[in-house]
Amino acid sequence: MTGVHGRIDDLDILPVRCPQCQECQNTVPRGGDPMSAKTEIACMVCGYAFQPMEYRRLLVERQKELQPVQLGEFD
Length: 75
What we know:
By secondary structure, this protein is α+β, with helices and mostly antiparallel strands. The chain contains one helix and three strands; from the N terminus they run βββα.
């Protein structure tokens, strides 16, 4: 994973936790760049629609949550 450098585009794109149902399954129903303020991002489970700034904030939180997780070598 990339480190946090104060710029949202430096982060890996990860599914964020839905504030309504707590699942981490996101979808971009109409396609597009999830980092664009014009792109709709929703929860695949309950249909909750994330606001652009809310999604970015939750993305940073999720990246910090997973930062300590380290995977071993893949063969």
